[in-house]
């Protein structure tokens, strides 16, 4: 009980204006000392900086006769060490494996996503200048500039995460920072199965579809788990195949021995040197790929992707933002139209139907859990409409104990594609042994 009281007092102090004011004054005092040390400070280790800060803060508090107890002095010293040697208030969040997204709406408004659920954090920055200083420290090793002439930045972090920042004058209420974190060890299919993303039947179907070189689109909304599912599907790829990944910001981390990773380039400040996903897909066709995986289809690259899937690069995969399989097909048509597709509507639909075998719809439920909500096969074109058949549909139900459970309802239809002919001939395909992936 006493530990809970002490923890509550810590949180109360950390979120107080008093903490921010004392930390700011101690920080200014530290900067004066660091200027006196000159280049020597830059050679110090994290441990040496921690010791230096502890001594300096202790002396600063005693000299100013600031009424703080020992624990409060330690909290200020720890915060200043992170400020000088790390990423300030962001350091603990970036190191927390449960944190998926960090969303900052100005210096005193921080939200964090854990297990698919957003919650407000108690931490805050001193002011918007403090927040910008930390963000620029993250961007400095990446060679990216953030100022009034370049007020939007989208960058890939060294650990594979993604950082997006918008500042004034585009952001009205201070810097808007979005950080998407990714696991260092990608989730395996068995991990997703244990988490309840899909069941045994879907495991078997997805494994069969990937190994039979079916073209798969993973469709879903923001933060629904599209990239994690795509990473998991890569565990089913044969090791003797060459896989080329094409992304706007490299996020995929495929567990495969032969992966060529390509990332688009935004170009210089003058607008030169731009390399789009469309350029990369077109070039990847000359790199002898067995499969092409597009991180996210969002623009003109949809035409190159469809052509690749229709010209011998079976087994390719991609993700796309859409709320349902039918909306996914509509979005592909719309993107192809924006990209300047020259043929008729019927020829475009035939090309789409010929390219895509399965649409795997994944969603984030109201409780934050990620679930495959539908597996739909694209079967062809009829009456100038792309025809589909849903193979599995997710349903939630309450157990007798009142607990929310998941089930996937099979509609009793076997896949139509010739690539899965063996599955049709033997519908009771044995389940993979536990721990295989």
Describe this protein's structure:
The chain is α/β, with parallel strands linked by helices and 437 residues long. 37% of the residues lie in helices and 23% in strands. The chain has 14 helices and 15 strands. Helix 2 (17-37) packs across helix 4, helix 3 packs across helix 4 and helix 10 packs parallel to helix 11. The longest helix is centred in the N-terminal third of the chain and has 21 residues, at 17-37. The chain is elongated. The two termini are 44 Å apart.
**Helix content class:** 25-40%
Taking all residues together, what is the mean pLDDT?
86
Overall geometric form = elongated
Q: What percentage of amino acids are in beta strands?
A: 15-25%
In the sheet with the most strands, the strands line up as 9-8-10-11-7-12-13-14-15
Distance between the termini: 44 Å
Count of individual helical segments:
14
What oligomeric state best describes the polypeptide chains here?
A: single chain
Class by SSE composition: alpha/beta
Number of strands: 15
User: What Rg do the Cα atoms give?
Assistant: 26 Å
> What profile does the largest beta sheet have?
9 strands, mixed
Report the order of strands and helices.
HHHHHEEEHEEEHHEHEEHEHEHHEEEEH
Question: Which residues sit in consecutive blocks of at least 5 with pLDDT less than 50?
Answer: 429-435
Domain Bacterial type II secretion system protein E: 84-361
Family: Belongs to the GSP E family.
InterPro entries: P-loop_NTPase, T2SS/T4SS_dom, T4SS_GSP_E_ATPase
Protein name: Pilus assembly protein CpaF
């Amino acid at each position: 009980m006493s530990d809970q009281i002490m923890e509550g007092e810590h949180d109360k102090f950390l979120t107080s204006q008093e903490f921010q004011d004392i930390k700011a004054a101690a920080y200014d005092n530290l900067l004066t000392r660091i200027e006196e040390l000159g280049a020597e400070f830059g050679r110090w280790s994290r441990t040496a900086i921690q010791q230096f800060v502890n001594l300096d803060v202790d002396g600063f508090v005693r000299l100013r006769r600031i009424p703080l107890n020992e624990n409060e002095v330690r909290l200020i010293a720890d915060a200043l060490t992170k400020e000088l040697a790390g990423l300030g208030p962001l350091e603990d969040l970036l190191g927390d494996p449960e944190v998926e997204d960090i969303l900052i709406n100005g210096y005193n408004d921080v939200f964090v996503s854990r297990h698919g659920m957003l919650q407000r954090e108690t931490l805050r920055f001193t002011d918007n200048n403090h927040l910008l200083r930390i963000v620029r420290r993250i961007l400095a090793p990446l060679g990216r500039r953030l100022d009034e002439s370049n007020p939007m930045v989208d960058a890939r972090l060294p650990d594979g995460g993604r950082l997006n920042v918008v500042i004034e004058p585009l952001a009205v209420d201070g810097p808007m920072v979005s950080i998407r974190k990714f696991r260092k060890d990608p989730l395996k299919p068995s991990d997703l199965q244990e988490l309840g993303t899909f069941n045994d039947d879907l495991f078997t179907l997805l494994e069969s579809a990937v190994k039979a070189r079916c073209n798969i689109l993973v469709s879903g909304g923001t933060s629904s788990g599209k990239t994690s599912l795509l990473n998991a599907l890569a565990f089913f790829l044969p090791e003797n195949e060459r896989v080329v990944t094409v992304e706007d910001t490299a996020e995929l981390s495929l567990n495969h021995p032969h992966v060529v990773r390509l990332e688009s380039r935004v170009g210089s400040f003058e607008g030169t040197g731009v390399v789009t996903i469309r350029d990369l897909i077109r070039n990847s066709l000359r790199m002898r790929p067995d499969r092409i995986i597009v991180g996210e289809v969002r623009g003109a690259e949809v035409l190159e992707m469809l052509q690749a899937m229709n010209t011998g690069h079976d087994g390719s995969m991609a993700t796309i933002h859409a709320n349902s399989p039918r909306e996914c097909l509509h979005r592909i048509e719309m993107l192809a139209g924006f990209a300047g597709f020259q043929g008729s509507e019927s020829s475009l639909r035939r090309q789409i139907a010929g390219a895509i075998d399965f649409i795997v719809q994944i969603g984030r439920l109201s409780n934050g859990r990620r679930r495959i909500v539908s597996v739909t096969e694209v079967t062809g074109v009829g009456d100038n409409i792309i025809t589909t058949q849903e193979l599995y549909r997710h349903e939630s139900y309450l157990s007798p104990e009142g607990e929310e459970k998941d089930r996937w309802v099979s509609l009793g239809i076997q896949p139509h594609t010739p690539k899965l002919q063996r599955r049709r001939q033997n519908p009771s395909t044995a389940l993979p042994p536990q721990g295989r992936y």
